[in-house]
Design a protein that fits this description.
Blueprint lengths: L10 H5 L2 H18 L4 H4 L7 H14 L5 H6 L4 H5 L6 H16 L5 H18 L4
């Protein structure tokens, strides 16, 4: 698979390992959030129990990467800025989120070109969540 085919149909979803691969990615993401000191601020934005957060992110990424639209089936329309407006998210918080995601992506058996593609794409929803400078 070449990087120029990512983002078409379900190529990204399949490159991420389908639903199970995305669930693995999300689990690694939240594990990183719980352990990295630089992620403490964003960890504190979440409830103690991360089950719903893990479910929402897994469902979001599944559809976002070209798989089934599982988030909207369970939670309704995806509105990233609205969902995060109650949180103070600036560049530092966005970058902490992306840092956790980088750790999670690097822990997956993805090809390097898919890792690079995925991290570049993930900047978009991370930036859309930002609501302060």
């Amino acid at each position: 698979m070449t990087s120029n085919s990512y983002g078409q149909d379900d190529t990204s979803f399949l490159a991420a390992g389908g639903f199970d691969g995305i669930k693995q990615l999300v689990d690694a993401f939240y594990d990183a959030m719980e352990t990295l000191p630089e992620a403490q601020t964003i960890r504190d934005m979440h409830s103690n129990n991360l089950d719903e957060s893990r479910d929402k992110l897994t469902r979001f990424l599944t559809g976002w990467l070209g798989g089934p639209k599982l988030f909207s089936e369970k939670y309704g329309p995806i509105r990233i800025p609205v969902a995060h407006r109650h949180l103070a998210i600036g560049p530092a918080e966005r970058d902490a989120w992306l840092g956790c995601m980088q750790v999670a992506v690097d822990a997956q058996p993805y090809t390097q070109d898919f890792r690079d593609y995925l991290m570049a794409q993930l900047y978009v929803p991370a930036e859309r969540s930002r609501n302060k400078d």
